Amino acid sequence: MDTRDQPNIKTVLLISFGFAFLVAAPLVAALVFLNTAQSDLEEDYCFDGMTSIAVATERVPAGEPLQPEHVRFMDVPQRFLPSGHILERDVEIYFGHPVSQDLGAEEMILTLHFITCDQLC
């Protein structure tokens, strides 16, 4: 038997490594892509983001206008915020407006705590 007809061990190894690379490279690329996509998703949904919201410093009885001394700000993870929360940058809009229900000390101040035009008409 002629040795020229048998595959060379270097050729077999080269083909094997080439095949392994062709299989492994897309898998590694997919893992890198998925890890990056997950990081982007966490940033988009602000899983770790904090938002400064308005909180009552003391009890504010229903009918009393909200004043700056009634408010402090607290950083809260965005994923725990209820709908209608009032951001630090927006709270001045509500100063001077009466609250429609009692606010407890340290309670989040929400838009539903204020009398709306619908309730007056």
Summarize the structure.
This protein is of the alpha+beta class and about 120 residues long.
Helical run tally: 2
Could you tell me the CATH topology label of the largest domain. Type Iii Antifreeze Protein Isoform Hplc 12
Q: What is the average of the pLDDT values?
A: 82
Tell me about the biggest sheet?
2 strands, antiparallel
Which regions have little confidence, pLDDT < 50, spanning 5+ residues?
none
Radius of gyration, taken over Cα atoms and rounded to an integer in Å: 31 Å
Q: What's the arrangement of strands in the largest beta sheet?
A: 1-2
Assign an overall shape. Answer: rod-shaped
- Would you tell me the structural class of the helices and strands? alpha+beta
**How much strand content do the residues show?**
5-15%
How do the SSEs run, as a string of H and E? HEEH
* Percentage of residues in helical conformation: 25-40%
| CATH superfamily descriptor of the largest domain | Antifreeze-like/N-acetylneuraminic acid synthase C-terminal domain
| CATH architecture level-2 label of the largest domain | Alpha-Beta Complex
What does it look like?
It is a single chain. With 121 residues, the protein is of the alpha+beta class. It has 2 domains: 3-44; 50-120, Antifreeze-like/N-acetylneuraminic acid synthase C-terminal domain (Type Iii Antifreeze Protein Isoform Hplc 12). The chain contains 2 helices and 2 strands. A two-stranded antiparallel sheet has the order 1-2. The mean pLDDT is 82.
